[in-house]
Amino acid sequence: MQGADPQLVRHAIETSDPLPGTAGFAGPVDGALVRDVLGRYPLFVEDRASMALPDWSADRTDLYEPVSLPAGHVKRDGEEPQQVWSLPDPTPYQHEREAISDLVGAISEGIAATRPDDAESVAIAFSGGVDSSVVAAGFDAPLYVGGFDGSHDLEAASTAAEAMDRELHVVEFTVADVERAVPEVARAIGRPDGMAVQIALPLYLVAEQARADGYEYLAVGQGADELFGGYAKVARAPEDPRVDADTVRGAQREMILTLPDQLERDVLALRAAGVEPVAPLLHDGVVETALKLPADSLVDDRGERKRAFRRAARQFVPDSIAFREKKAVQYGSLVGRELDRLARQAGFKRRMDDHVSEYIRSRIA
């Protein structure tokens, strides 16, 4: 069982408790396969109906036809997966001060609960944004940022590291790095998809360097945008056509439910690079607190996103970081730009339907 004691998982099944105080789990228990409600650990089963007992693995490349076990499900021998956990829908906080106080405590507990026993075995994936900076504040560990020369992420990480008085390791990408890593990442995550590879590839390259430097774990800030209202489409709900929800809290929940798919991609990429991810902001206590935030603590009436999280972050990082805006990794690192350029140089023009994905498929054919 990855991520949790089997006895705790048994109790979570018996009580239908979706957030029993872990940072996720997946694996076998009492002859069944289980995966936590947010899918924080990947788990795959063999999609071969002739098999009486399903083969399974945490690594999709171990299987002939791997299929993800859905998050929040249990699969018993010879049966279809059954959902046993779903996200709770708690009553929102009435007072923001209480929400922020609880969030500070939950973040601190998440950091403590996910810290590896060997403190010297962990490095931090650091972009200079509020999410990774809060995580970095909880670890006495080196900071690693990756990107092309002149990219937003290298500049943001440099100024944030200086504000936090921390040493920064810069992993400067080259076109050759990206070209080499494209098929490696696409195969590892099982998705020859342009956007998925653009997001996973910077993590992969940073993780490769951290592993080469001797680190076994990479602490990441994943989950904060989904949990705390970091997306513009959440702020614009229900007018934004990219969300189905008709409220900000509904849109937040919609984004949280995308995490199993996103986390599978990121965890597989990091493991392929040789490190194990550590994600304090996805600990159950943080998730539970985030689900109780009212709409105006996610996005306030001035349009400020992640309002409560930014105010909680002030307990960990300087205000200049807590209230900083951040670009998505594929844009902040300039990996998206360079993948587009590589695709066009290989003859896949923008007028084609999803030309970057077509380029990636050609590299793994």
Automatic annotation (TrEMBL):
Domain of life (superkingdom): Archaea
Keyword Nucleotide-binding belongs to the record: yes
Pfam families hit by this protein: Asn_synthase (PF00733)
GO BP annotations, alphabetical order: asparagine biosynthetic process
Entry annotated with the keyword Nucleotide-binding: yes
Keywords in alphabetical order: ATP-binding, Nucleotide-binding
One of the record's GO molecular function terms: ATP binding
Domain Asparagine synthetase: 119-238, 251-347
UniProt-listed Gene3D superfamilies: HUPs
Gene Ontology cellular component list: cytosol
PANTHER family to which the protein is assigned, alphabetical: ASPARAGINE SYNTHETASE (PTHR11772), ASPARAGINE SYNTHETASE [GLUTAMINE-HYDROLYZING] (PTHR11772:SF2)
Protein's recorded name: Asparagine synthase (Glutamine-hydrolyzing)
